[in-house]
Amino acid sequence: MAKVAVGVAVLFFLLPLVGLLLRTPWSELGTELASPPVRSALWLSLVCSLAATAISVVFGVPLAWALARWQFPGKSVVRALTTLPMIVPPVVGGVALLLAFGRRGFAGRWLDQAFGITLPFTTAGAILAETFVAMPFLVITVEAGLRSMNRRFEDAASTLGAGPWVTFRRVTLPLIGPSLWAGAALAWARALGEFGATITFAGNLPGRTQTIPLAVYLALETRLEAAITLSVVLLAVSLTVLVLLRDRFMPNL
Question: Environment class of residue 240 by beta-carbon count within 10 Å: exposed (0-12), middle (13-18) or buried (19+)?
Fold first, then answer.
């Protein structure tokens, strides 16, 4: 019975991919990839997803540290807020971002008046939307790594006179390295495939905010073959990077 369940689960993930590959116009793949709209969308997807991953690491690691090590009032609420973007529909996240960082949003109005910064319908807005949905994956993975690590090494470093920063950089960071890379890979994959929050907050502007998922959505209405080709490209890029990261940094996952 268990083998049947495993087989059904594997087929559940495999059959959609087989259907996609069977419909792919392989003879036109090179032409589609060479077209300026596809190259622009692919480049923008890579730039935005990598930037969102970098921002997630810079701000997500300290947040994971606080959730794993600190005790403070409202900690459960902060943890719930951190994981909320994983549960709510992405389009709802996009609406929330628009109300906060839009031209009339309470934070967006201040950014515009004080610094002349406008986020909606810009590349920076696309990065912000992808960060919003991707960072929770990094936070919960790094927090799990911090909770499971052996803290005796940190205590030994402190006993030998190492300060908090030195202990974190030379002891903690290497120990949670696999969790950090795994979280970064998951965040990057989520950012690369982000659609709902991006189109709601940043729009679908070619060359500025039109990433591969948005280009696929647009092509579905006009050119099905182009949409299939873009889907295969996104699938190949995601799968290649995740396999490489997994073999190098996540051998036990």
Answer: exposed
- Place 240 in a pLDDT band, splitting at 50, 70 and 90: confident
Hunting for tokens 């396999």 — which residue is that? 243
Distance separating alpha carbons of residues 231 and 24, to the nearest angstrom: 9
pLDDT at 225 over 80: no
Q: What is the pLDDT of residues 44-96, one digit of tens each?
A: 998 999 999 999 999 999 999 999 988 989 899 999 999 899 888 888 999 99
**For the chain, how far is it from start to end, CA to CA, in angstroms?**
25
- The backbone region for 161, taken as left when phi is positive above 0, alpha when psi lies in -120 to 50, beta otherwise, is left
In this structure, which amino acid lies at residue 23?
R
Q: Which residues of 66-95 are buried (b: 16+ CB within 10 A; e: fewer)?
A: bbbeeeeeeeeeebeebeebeeeebeebbb
Give the span between the Cα atoms of 114 and 33, in whole angstroms: 42
The type of residue at 65 is W
The string of DSSP letters for 14-26 reads HHHHHHHHHH--G
pLDDT at site 168: 85
C-alpha to C-alpha distance for 5 and 20, rounded to whole angstroms? 24
